Amino acid sequence: MYIKIAAPRENPETLARLKSLLAGHAGPLDTVLFYEREQRTLALSDSYRVRPSPELFRAIEALLGEGAVVVR
Question: What is the pLDDT of residues 37-50, one digit of tens each?
């Protein structure tokens, strides 16, 4: 699962909320963050593997904006 972090949302509070959200949806899928400003990807550790669900996608988009999450 890829999560896009737009430049205005790159702050410690938002990232802490995202980590907490991911931790609550443990599953088999790797999670990769894409930092838009730097055009850089960061694969998260296995402890942030998730089970994709519409609920999780809605929560991520509420936090980071529409279109912020993609499963590939």
Answer: 999 999 999 999 99
Dihedral angle sign, alpha carbons of residues 50, 53, 57, 63:
negative
Q: CB count, 10 Å around CB of 69? A: 21
The residue range of the domain holding 52 is: 2-70
pTM score, two decimals? 0.93
Number of domains comprising the chain: 1
> Could you give the CA distance from residue 3 to residue 32 in angstroms, rounded to a whole number?
6
Give the whole-angstrom CA distance, residue 68 versus residue 5.
7
